[in-house]
Every structure is written in C-alpha cells, then in structure tokens.
Here is the input.
Amino acid sequence: MFFYLLFFLLVIIAFFDLYWILRLVCTRIQSHLLPSLSINQESITYNLCWTTDIDYFAHMNNGKYFREMDFGRFDFYFRTGCSAYIEGIQGMYVVQHGASIRYRKSINMLVPFKLVTRLVFWDEKSLYFEQKFVSLHDGFIRAIALCKNTVVGGSVKDMLACLGHHVPPPCPEEVVLWLRSQEVSSNRLRMEGHGKSVGNNLAAAASEGDKTVLETNVVANTTQETVKSKEL
Here is the structure.
C-alpha cells in the first residue's frame, strides 16, 4: 500500500507543479485572513531565496522572480475583490500579456525579501502593475518589474467601476514607453509575416480616445517633472 501511495505521489510531482498548486491554495486561504485591499493600495508578500531558487552563482534565478510576481498579483486580485468579480462572470479570465523586469542588485541565497505589487494604470482591456523586490535587511529595491494583465471576456473598466474606481490614474511614462516598445516589436513580426498579436497595441485594444488620453497623461507628467527639475 505504501509503495502505491509513494508511486502516486511521484507521478503527481512528475506531471504537475505541486508546489505552485499548493501555494495558490494557501494564497487564497490567506487572502480571507488578511485585511481587504483597495485598488490603490499595495499588496505585500514575503518570501526567502531558498536553496531550490538559486542559480550557478547562488543568486535567485530568473524563474523565481517571475513566479513570485505571479503570486503577488494573485494576492492583489484576491484581496481587492477583482477575483470575485471575475469568477462571477462566465467566460471572463485574465492572462499575462507581457512583463519586463530590471535587476538592480542580486538576491542571494537565504536572503529574505518582500514583493510590493501596485496597480499603476488600467484601460478597457488591461491592468498594468509595478512590482518591486525589496530585501528586508536593508530596504534596497533589488529588482523592479512592469506587468500587463489582459482580461478576456469582460471589461476592466466595468470591473473597477463596480469596485468604486471609475477613472484610472495618470499612466506612468515608463509604462507608455514600454507599450510603445512592444508595438515596435509586434509591427516587426507582422511585417515578417508572423501574424498579428491580439491586443498588443499601445493600450491593449483600447479605443483611439483611450490612447489619446494615455499619451496626453504622459506628456503632462513629463512636463511636470521637467518643471520640478528646473526648480531644483
């Protein structure tokens, strides 16, 4: 009997990412125990660079960063009510549409850190997150990432309006430039005959009016930053 149980467990581990599944369940349970979050609040999760997370140089490997970012967004969705809204609409779900990370300093083995997840912008179809890895012992931001989550079968604006947020914040300049770089890449692939990437335009299938507002916001932000620089 023990042999069969052991064999079954090994099969499960071999064919499924058991740790990912268990952690998702724990994250969901934990979200019911922690305070709810507003859309404009930060989600903070904690973890440790363990021996299974390191690369050849004993630094946290790239896969660990992106896995942590997934669970940071899961925590945000669960605690803000976004997940409940999505689950309540048949055929609505969220996909990871893009991500870009910049490493500032490595996270070494056994170093504890926190992941700070913040929603910085949204449009009709997508949510844009900033996620920061911060080491606990010195408060240094070790890495910072931008992530784009696209909603299928529903409207981001309707969802956030239901949660009491009708107007998105000004789009950060780095997000606008990041989206433009994605568009350049998409155009090149289309010109090479590789087909069209659905939703990978300036504002994730947003209307032309949304694009104009997005670009106007970044121009205004840039102007304000220039004025502040001159004053300093």
